Amino acid sequence: MDNHLSSNMRKALPDSLFGLPQRREYPMPDAAHVRAAEAYFRYCPVGLRHQLADAILRFARKYGVDVRSQLVLSYAS
């Protein structure tokens, strides 16, 4: 199964499905993308990490993903 989002698919996503909606970064329309956001969390600007960590955990609950990254968990509220 291909989890790649084409540019048109990404453009069609509502802001609410992004970990950083103001920047439209870290799309999380499904469990695979939540795992990708967790994996790429270290590249998030430090000042936005709390927001992204909270979003990752919110989407993880929605899709039944177990977040294991201690870095993500350390920034979550």
Spell out the blueprint of helices and strands.
Elements: H1 7-12, E1 18-20, E2 25-27, H2 31-39, H3 49-63, H4 70-75
Antiparallel strand pairs: 1-2
Helix pairs in contact: 2-3
Protein model, in words:
The termini are far apart. α2 runs antiparallel to α3 (49-63). A hairpin with a 4-residue loop joins β1 and β2 (25-27). The protein has one domain (7-75). It is built from 4 helices and 2 strands. The radius of gyration is 12 Å and the shape is globular. A two-stranded antiparallel sheet has the order 1-2. The longest helix has 15 residues, at 49-63. Helix content is 47%, strand content 8%. With 77 residues, the chain is mainly alpha-helical.
Contiguous runs where pLDDT drops below 50 for at least 5 residues: none
Estimate nothing, just give the exact number of structural domains: 1
Task: Write the element-wise H/E pattern from the N-terminal end onward.
Answer: HEEHHH
Give the total of beta strands. 2
| Rounded average pLDDT | 95
- Count of helix runs: 4
Shape: globular
Q: Classify the secondary structure makeup into a structural class.
A: mainly alpha
Strand percentage, roughly?
5-15%
Radius of gyration, in Å, reads 12 Å
Q: Give a quick account of the main beta sheet: strands, pairing sense, barrel closure.
A: 2 strands, antiparallel
Strand order of the largest sheet: 1-2
| Assembly form of the protein | single chain
- Helicity, as a percent range: 40-55%
Cα(first) to Cα(last) distance is 33 Å
